[in-house]
Amino acid sequence: MMFYNLISKHKRDKFLGANLSENLREQHSRRSMRVIKGDTVRILRGEYVGIEGKVEKVNTVRSTLSIEGVQREKIRGGNVKVQIHGSNVQIISLNTDDEYRMKGTKKTKNKNRTVKKEKETKKSIAKTTEIVKGEEM
Length: 137
Known about the structure:
- The chain has helices at about 10, 20-30, 100-105, 110-135, and strands spanning about 15-20, 30-35, 40-45, 50-60, 65-75, 80-85, 90-95.
- It has four helices and seven strands, in the order αβαββββββαα.
- Strands 2-1-7-3-4-5-6 form a seven-stranded mixed beta sheet.
- The chain is an alpha+beta fold.
């Protein structure tokens, strides 16, 4: 296990980031987020490619996730959860229970409209200054 024990916990949490699906990127105006328990993810790499499931457990020390339905059989019998690295998954739906997490990802649908209004006001100010200059001459 490399150097994970030497890194403080709040910095280790950054290793658990995963990219968002296309519709979540548009909704939240972000490319990636930290994976937490309760998120639904799709596996993009490895033996279990294409499997979707909810995150059951997050291991910050090894930056791995335990996902529902991702298991393998032991030689002696029984099933074991397979740990998937956070970089090999994509978040499909977010767990919205955490208010602090959702505060930073407010839905911004009217973002372009405010920019257009600012541009219109600049144009209208320029026109009014031209009119005022024309009257002074």
